[in-house]
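[Discussion] Sanity-checking designs against the backbone

I'm trying to build intuition for which residues belong where. Below is a structure token string of 429 positions. I'd appreciate it if someone posts a full sequence so I can compare it with mine line by line.
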């Protein structure tokens, strides 16, 4: 992860709506508010103006999201009657519901603080703000819409004004699955043997109870050597693999009908040696190439973007820390490097959307690398993410690759001065 900071001689954030414009997510919908029976008032029909906001528009499954339900205008009126019916300050407590739909359904209960200015008799009740939380349980798009709300007043007697409503969608979030690592691996008791000899193979890191295939391989193709087993409660299967195919140069283990980078282990090198001793005065020399790993390093942690003059707005340029990817697995699977960025946040919670950051990637393969490196397309990074670089699947892949990208944050005009910070996360898979 890297922190990105842009400056305009002060602090940056998401621009407020221009005068006369409707703030993002603000909706209006018909509402009927029923005053308590004790008030002796008729139902109040009219529009509710509301807005829902979230603290994280791109959570992962399992994250807790805080939601805010603002009722900006309501048809409900002061339920305290009579000549002395003024509602004092700080006696109004709001509660409400937010309706979830899409990848996750249900309701979120929200509650507001007991805080209000005095309300004269017969006047509309004031704007209220309610907050609550919910846990993301499924990946995909989730919509949030305002539902019914209740305005409780605790002056003289406790009175509840209930407003029935089902508003349109006011906010959206996109939830993603938690990333999972492939921990499947194989270990051989010996790295060589004569044709027909059995080698003890330990396959680990599989789901308990999974059907595991242990097979010989020559390059990217499987050989005739194969056995099956079931992973125990610890996700381990131990088998004796007879190696009869003289072309076998490695052993793999996998789930499913065929090996894949997602459900298979990396190859463990194995050599089939001649059954008969070498001829007199000659010696057979065998060298074994051990497979390595896929990994990356990055130069530096922070990225400082250029400054933008207040008022004009414009582009704040910069460059990510150079990333070096090393692929020493020796298998057929390529790799991809992706990135995504959070919103830029300044003092007071002012934000510039992460979608305002774009990049132009570049990628270079070191001499001798087997795989070509393809940079991702120039464009928006944002919270949804974008491809930085990748290499394709091939019979045999590997190499060292240098990845760079210039980045530009597009700052809206008249963004308040200051420093705005976001987090850029790079993921190698």
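Best answer:
Here's mine. Compare freely.
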């Amino acid at each position: 992860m890297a922190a990105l900071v842009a400056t305009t001689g002060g602090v940056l954030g998401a621009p407020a709506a221009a005068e006369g414009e409707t703030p993002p997510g603000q909706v209006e919908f018909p509402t009927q508010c029923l005053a308590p029976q004790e008030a002796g008032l008729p139902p109040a029909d009219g529009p509710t103006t509301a807005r829902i906001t979230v603290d994280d528009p791109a959570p992962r499954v399992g994250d807790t999201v805080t939601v805010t339900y603002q009722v900006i205008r309501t048809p409900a009126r002061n339920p305290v009657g009579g000549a002395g019916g003024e509602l004092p300050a700080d006696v109004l407590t709001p509660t409400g519901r937010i309706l979830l739909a899409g990848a996750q359904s249900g309701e979120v209960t929200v509650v507001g603080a007991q805080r209000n200015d005095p309300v004269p008799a017969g006047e509309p009740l004031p704007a209220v703000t309610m907050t609550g939380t919910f846990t993301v349980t499924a990946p995909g798009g989730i919509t949030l819409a305002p539902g019914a709300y209740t305005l409780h007043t605790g002056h003289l007697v406790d009175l509840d004004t209930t407003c029935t409503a089902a508003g349109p969608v006011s906010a959206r979030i996109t939830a993603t699955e938690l990333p999972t690592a492939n921990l499947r691996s194989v270990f051989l008791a010996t790295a060589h043997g004569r044709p027909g000899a059995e080698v003890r193979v330990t396959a680990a890191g599989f789901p308990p109870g999974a059907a595991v295939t242990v097979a010989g391989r020559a390059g990217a193709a499987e050989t005739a050597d194969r056995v099956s087993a079931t992973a125990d409660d610890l996700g381990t299967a131990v088998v004796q693999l007879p190696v009869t195919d003289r072309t076998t140069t490695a052993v793999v283990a996998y789930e499913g009908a065929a090996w894949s980078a997602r459900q298979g282990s990396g190859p463990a090198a194995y050599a089939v040696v001649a059954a008969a001793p070498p001829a007199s005065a000659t010696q057979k020399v065998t060298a074994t190439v051990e497979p390595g790993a896929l990994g990356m390093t990055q130069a530096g942690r922070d990225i400082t973007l250029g400054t933008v003059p207040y008022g004009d707005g414009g582009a704040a340029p910069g460059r990510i820390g150079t990333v070096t990817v090393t692929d020493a697995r020796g298998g057929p699977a390529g790799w991809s490097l992706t990135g995504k960025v959070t919103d830029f946040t300044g003092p007071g919670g002012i934000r510039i959307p992460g979608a305002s950051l774009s990049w132009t990637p570049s990628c270079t393969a070191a001499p001798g690398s087997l795989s070509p490196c393809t940079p991702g397309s120039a464009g928006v990074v944002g919270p949804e993410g974008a491809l930085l670089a990748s290499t394709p699947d091939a019979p045999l892949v590997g190499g060292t690759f240098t990845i760079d990208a210039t980045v530009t944050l597009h700052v809206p005009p008249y963004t308040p001065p200051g420093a705005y910070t976001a987090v850029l996360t790079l993921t190698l898979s």
